[in-house]
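Q: Trace token order:
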Amino acid sequence: MNPRPSTCVLLLAIAACQPEDKRAAAPAGQKAPAVVVAKAEMRTLRPGFSFPAKVVAFSEADLRPEVSATVVSCAVAPGVAVREGEVLFELERGRYQAALKSAEAALEQARSTSERAESDLGRMEKARQTGAVAAAQFDQVQAISRSAKAAVLAAEAAVEKAAIDLKDTTITAPFDGRVSAANVSPGDLASPSAAEPLITIVQTDPVYVVAEVDQKEAEAFYSVRSELEHRGLATPDLELVVILPTGAEFPHKGQFVNWDPTGASSSGTIQGWSKFENPDGVLVPGYNVTILGRVQKPIDRIMIPQKAVLRDQVGDFVFVVGDDGTVARKDLELGVKEGKDQAVRSGLAGGERVVVEGVLKVKAGSKVTVVEAPVGDPARDQGGGLSEAVKKATGEPATEGAGASGEAEETK
């Protein structure tokens, strides 16, 4: 028998009074969807940037002889470290020693001639005062004396040059560094006009590390710095480190020297030059390395994975899961990116479980089954550029806002 109309109305009223979650409950036996979550964590960051770079010698010199002579000895092997003033080559000295002795003898002769001329001039001066000699005769003796003095000066210069030539037969290191292979051997004739130098020496302590920075990135850095200065904020101090080809961090910190804009017109880049102490010679000129810039003063930020962040017309938000498995929406004000993570300026207090995978399955108020996942450690990920590092250190928002992670975006 069909129920009476009054009974149907009563049943509908009772159903309407049931709680909404019971009316929307899944069929009996159906499990709540599983999602992967990660905790929002407070972390200490050192924002930074990285660029490929090359090690350049602080000084480099091609050594050539100042005199022509036969090589007597070569005192160094390829690649060895030498000290300033250390003897590298000895050239044959015999004829330069003889030239020095000859110049010294000529000097003695010139001095003797000058002394005799000076004595003659003294006698003529006395005779001139009594009128015993003519003016023309006196002028002649005076000219002879002056010529003799000039000859002494020339002879002294010849002695000095001969001494320099003799000294130049010993070739020493002009500064501390490492040497290349020698291009001559004992018995070869060394000459200033030779096509190749005797040897090349490079100064390896300190060294330059030169980074090729995109011109747009450099301009962005200057723009950020000008904006900070206009607002009365200081540009954060940066700590420069080098990552070696092996992935290890070079132990000595660097100091920024200056920008070299000469390459900007041809390559679209600008060279940033930094100086590093290199006492052990670990940084070899020509090495390809990575230079990292990190702010010296760390900052504290709440961090979540970037892929947890969604966006709709209201703004950026995440889904968080409560202790009872209920999903809630949290609207966010985002900070900067650090590696694969995102800083949160407001909206989370830390400790919340944010959904990173499975957001298509959830909405605010739904129940889920939780699978924990670590946030990850971006400490070695120095993503971002020079201008972004400055923004991070001052708490400024990143240039690019966080977007949807590829999952569906939900309207609040």
